[in-house]
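Good morning,

Attaching, inline, the backbone tokens for the sequence recovery test we're adding to the shared suite. The designed sequence is right after.
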């Protein structure tokens, strides 16, 4: 069994004795029945506005994806399968959410401090501080963050920060009837997830795999990870997500070096011109 160490930038040192165990979501898509109870519970508890009840023609999906008014999104992927020369259809269902990344690019680019790391290791937007600049929107490698049309401020899943403070689990996990969405300390969730993958593979689900569970990916691991029955791309998830600010330090150093070189060249040219 693997041991996962997922340190989080500016946590827990920022909180000292008030820091709590890092918590998050494990979503076992093999248990999802597409009931959307998580979507409804999220909207009701967090007072997220209605985002349209339109028929999109995308299987049973009426929300389309995560956004400012959709903090939980249940994807329906219709997949053709062939069993014993008989062609059939199966649904791959998955409830998507903000990943609460270990290396959160959205937090790094926020100029106002509206995005912050909580004592639980999660990433939350403070709506009263957000100025609607939108820098975080393209910074997110998962396309989670979105601005509301009315005032331009950014909104996303808070992992029910207010409920955590009262010792309660997030509303979506509480409402899930099949326990597809599981909440708890990340180390315990990951140990359970490994056993679950082994169990499914033993049943013949050869493509069963964990997504974002460990610290070796481009975001240093996530606070919300998944058990998938096929490759991430099938679910509309990036196969190799990367912290978009990861190489900024090197880029700035290269730019500074180039500026120094240009300045030295200009100064040399001026000096040579005067001597001539």
């Amino acid at each position: 069994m693997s041991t996962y160490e997922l340190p989080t930038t500016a946590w827990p040192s920022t909180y000292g004795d008030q820091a709590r165990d890092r918590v998050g979501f494990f979503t076992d898509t093999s248990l999802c029945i597409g009931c959307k109870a998580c979507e409804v519970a999220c909207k009701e508890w967090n007072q997220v506005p209605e985002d349209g009840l339109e028929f999109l023609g995308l299987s049973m999906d009426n929300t389309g994806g995560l956004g400012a008014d959709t903090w939980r999104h249940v994807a329906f992927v219709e997949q053709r399968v062939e069993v014993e020369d008989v062609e059939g259809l199966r649904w791959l269902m998955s409830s998507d959410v903000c990943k609460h990344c270990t290396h959160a690019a959205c937090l790094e680019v926020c100029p106002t401090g509206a995005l912050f790391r909580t004592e639980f290791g999660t990433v939350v937007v403070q709506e009263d501080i957000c100025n609607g600049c939108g820098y975080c929107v393209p910074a997110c490698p998962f396309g989670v963050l979105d601005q509301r049309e009315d005032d331009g401020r950014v909104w996303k899943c808070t992992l029910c920060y207010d409920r955590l403070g009262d010792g309660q689990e997030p509303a979506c996990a509480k409402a899930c009837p099949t326990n597809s969405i599981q909440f708890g300390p990340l180390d315990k969730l990951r140990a359970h997830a490994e056993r679950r993958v082994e169990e499914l593979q033993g049943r013949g689900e050869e493509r069963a795999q964990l997504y974002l569970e460990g610290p070796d990916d481009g975001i240093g691991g996530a606070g919300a990870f998944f058990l998938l029955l096929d490759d991430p791309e099938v679910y509309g998830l990036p196969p190799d997500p990367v912290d978009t600010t990861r190489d900024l330090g090197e880029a700035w150093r290269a730019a500074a070096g180039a500026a120094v070189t240009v300045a030295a060249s200009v100064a040399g040219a001026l000096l040579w011109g005067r001597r001539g």
